[in-house]
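Marked as duplicate of an earlier ticket. Keeping the data here for the record.
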Amino acid sequence: MSLTFLLLLPLGSLLPRTLSHLTPHAIPLHRALQLTGFLVVLVALAMGVWVCAGLGQIHHTLYLRSRPNTLITLIHRFLGPTTILLGIINGGLGLRKADAGNGARAGYAVVGVVIAVGVGVVVVWARRSRGGREREGKRERERERGWELGRR
């Protein structure tokens, strides 16, 4: 997808401006390159959504079965928030690139910061409140197995 934005779409946009006086095929080539670029982006987007949804489903299924942190769990926990954060940043950059007014950009920034802080507070709160229960549950499982804390 990066190559589409880096090469295919810019090249397609240049064809009518640079080659239309040399060949009658410049406009059809422009149309074909732009349509191809659009389809590549659309397919890549669909694949990205499918992969994220698939990884999420696999993570949740495995987690409900066994409750350990698997590789899929770690990928899911990293990729999800990272993707959301990059999407928020991309939206702000898009407003800047579109020459949106200062009010729109400031409003977007305020909402983005409020959402980011709110999510951060909820994550910290959930981890702290769950942490005590998880430690107690681990101790209970160790007692059931006949283990003393830290010893077999």
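See parent ticket for discussion. The CA atoms of residues 117 and 124 lie 11 Å apart.
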